[in-house]
Every structure is written in structure tokens, then in C-alpha cells.
Specification:
Elements (H helix, E strand, L loop, with lengths): L3 E3 L12 H18 L3 H6 E8 L13 H14 L4 E10 L2 E11 L13 E13 L2 E9 L1 H7 L9 H22 L1
Parallel strand pairs: 2-6
Antiparallel strand pairs: 1-3, 3-4, 4-5, 5-6
């Protein structure tokens, strides 16, 4: 399997089946949608049947397919972090897949899935993989540091804190209860 590694400045500008072009299309979709609110790119570049795999995806979005899940995700984060900035750091394209290593940052000024605005500046890094067919994304996998973001927003206790230690103790109690429950 051959691969073409590119960075955002080296890739082409048209979304076709050429790996370099797909790399540029994936980069544009991520950066321009989040940074500039260009949600129309989702309709242009994501198949109506596309499947999104993101373990941090809110339950209300898990049943959606195609551009809608992407547009609602972007809208959710742009509302919570109005100054959000996503930057693609590395792009690797091979065959019909494009891997993006990215980071984002912004100020938590709006509600995020029930979390009240904190005014905290948050930053995360992640990796997304887009699979393309006929010039459209048909499947996406994403992994990003959602625990790190939760800690930055006060939704999870800081590492090494009393809150974290209490959380571990509570988890041990729950684990014992679950083991007993599952043995019957």
C-alpha cells in the first residue's frame, strides 16, 4: 500500500480520489468548519450515509448519519467555545484514508452538553481518520483528549487531587458491587 504524507501547506485543493487532494479536503473540512463555521463543506464533502465513530459523541448524536452529525457537532463546540481554533498539525494520506493529527483551543464561554460556561481556556489534541469514496467521506474515526478537556473545565477532578482519589475509592466500591452482581 503506497502512501503520500503531506502537510496542510503541501496538499492540493480539489476533493478527488488522489490521496493529496483527499488530504487537503479532510484538512479543509475540519479547519474551515470549526474555525469559520463553513458548515456547507459538510454537505459538499460528507456522504449522506457517512458513519461517525467518536467515543465522546453525545448520545443524542449517535443515531445520526451523514453531514448532519458533523454539522451538529461543529455547532455544539462553536457555541461552547465561540473563539475555537482547530489546527491540523500533520496529514497522512494513503489510498482512500486520510489521517489528521490536530489540536484545538478556545474559551469555554457557552454551555457544553450541560456544563455551565467556566470562562476557562481549554486545549485538546486528537487524531481523526476519514475514509473517502467517490469524493465524499463515508466513515470517520476520532480520538481526542476529552478527559483532559473535562479537567480543564472543572468537570473532572485534577490529576492527583483529593477529588480524583475519592473518585477512585468510589469506583472501587462500585467495582466490587458490579462483580457481585455479575456473578449471580
Amino acid at each position: 500500500m503506497s502512501s503520500d504524507a503531506t502537510t496542510s501547506s503541501e496538499a492540493g485543493t480539489q476533493a478527488t480520489t488522489v490521496p493529496g487532494d483527499l488530504a487537503e479536503a479532510s484538512r479543509r473540512l475540519l479547519e474551515e468548519s470549526f474555525n469559520e463555521g463553513k458548515l456547507e463543506l459538510a454537505d459538499q464533502l460528507i456522504s449522506p450515509e457517512a458513519v461517525n465513530h467518536d467515543p465522546a459523541e453525545p448520545a443524542r448524536l449517535r443515531g445520526l448519519r451523514g453531514p448532519d452529525v458533523f454539522k451538529q457537532t461543529v455547532t455544539m463546540y462553536r457555541a461552547a467555545f465561540p473563539d475555537v481554533r482547530v489546527t491540523v498539525d500533520d496529514v497522512i494520506a494513503s489510498g482512500d484514508k486520510v489521517v489528521l493529527r490536530w489540536h484545538s483551543e478556545g474559551t469555554h464561554s457557552g454551555e457544553l452538553e450541560g456544563l455551565a460556561p467556566t470562562g476557562a481556556r481549554g486545549s485538546v489534541s486528537g487524531i481523526s481518520i476519514d475514509q473517502w469514496k467517490d469524493g465524499k467521506v463515508i466513515e470517520t474515526w476520532s480520538e481526542w483528549d476529552n478527559l483532559g478537556l473535562a479537567r480543564q473545565l472543572g468537570a473532572a477532578p485534577p490529576e492527583g487531587s483529593v477529588g480524583e482519589k475519592l473518585g477512585f475509592a468510589l469506583q472501587r466500591v462500585m467495582a466490587r458491587w458490579m462483580r457481585k452482581k455479575n456473578q449471580t
